[in-house]
Amino acid sequence: MTKRGTALAGLVLSSLLTAGLTACGSGGPSGVTKAPVAYGAVTQVVEAPATVTPKTQITVNATAGGSVAQLMVADGQHVTAGQTLLRIDSPDAQAQLNAAKAADAQAAAQGKRSSSGSSAIDFSESESLADANAQKSFDAAQTTAEQIADPAIKASILKQITSARNQYATASSDVRSTIANFNNGLASASDVVGSLSGAQRTQTQAAVAIAQKTVDSLTMKASIAGDISLRSGVGGASASGVDVSSLLSQLGGNLGSLAGAAGGSLGSAASGGGSTDPSDDTVITQGSPVDSGAALLVITDSSTLTLTAQVDETSILQITPGITADVQLDAVPDADYQASVISIDSQGQSSSRGGVTYRVRLSLGAGKLGDGSAAPVPRPGMSAVADLQVANKAHVLAVPSAAVVHVGNQDTVWLVASGTAHRHVVRLGAQGDTTVEVSSGLNPGDVIVTSGADKVHDGQKL
């Protein structure tokens, strides 16, 4: 039980005692007390472990293997959105771009060569085969691009693939029109071959665009404002590890073999290697080798802090947006922070104890120390306990929790009338740690057993 909950319960119980709690009744067993029922306050709290969460936190990963050519930020430095962070030197990425351009130039040259002796049937079959192959190429490239971890790079490449699909669809329509003109004697065979090659070239052009984006992304800029935490830049297999030469090959026909000859894949680790141990305290410096997909740095925006609480499934239905909470941080045990529920995840997740918990997000306000002064501002990642106030009744019939005895599916108390105790069924409302609300079954002034209920039997004189 948290210190705030204990203090509140103590105040409520003190009110009840002041209202008329008496010592053990005459002739009653030791440890049994009784008191008249009175009005008081009851606060029902759901306690949940929580973590302080920043407004935004992003990890910047290496888009290709190589080395840090320039490092323009330091550990702990605050950066603004759009600020240049570092630049990677990647011979592999440049080789991929050169190979893509070479394959595109080859496709362009091929389109200038006409074919002799081709029939209209040959052209139609070639066009159908080209369409089928293009569709497979685009689908395979999209599947590969979906594996890219960096959301900005993935979105950019997927956009390029979609654009290439649309361009191919337009070019394919032009091919069918040219074939129709050829069949009607309005176009030459070289016109048809040029049209077919133009349609197929949309794939090699897309490969060039993707390779160019990879090279451009070697100069990395901050997408948000925040504080820098440098990382090691090694061990990128789990970060993205996408074989970009495979992606380019899927789009560019014979580009794969050209790329392989030019220098390998961007998904492979950079020369120099390094430890993949997450506990490695090494951070990147200028000249450090980096692996494709490895974390280079983390940017944390702590301008607005929130709280992420894990609420057990047995209590989640009591939580609604707007509910307030008292928060205690492990790092500042003598301080209280105020919070309010913002949202509740619709999907639960298995907890380490075998049950199901739901993630609840709360706004986090300023805190106060025990002497009333301002509490320190928390840091992201700090552990906390949130007391979510699911019910707060200020003026209700309140009895100690110890007075309630559960019998089967019923809640009962020992009602004392004319000095004799009888079991009496009640209905409970809000339930605090030490006091509960009685919503029906009792009236103000009714005398009940408040402690030692397990020592009382029906008809006993108290």
From TrEMBL:
The keyword Ribonucleoprotein does not apply. Residues 396-461 form the YknX-like C-terminal permuted SH3-like domain. It holds the Pfam family YknX_C. It comes from the Bacteria. Residues 267-287 are annotated as: Disordered. InterPro entries: YknX-like_C. Residues 1-23 form the signal peptide. GO terms for cellular component: efflux pump complex. GO terms for molecular function: efflux transmembrane transporter activity. Keywords: Signal. PANTHER family: MULTIDRUG RESISTANCE PROTEIN MDTA. This is Efflux transporter, RND family, MFP subunit. It comes from Catenulispora acidiphila (strain DSM 44928 / JCM 14897 / NBRC 102108 / NRRL B-24433 / ID139908).
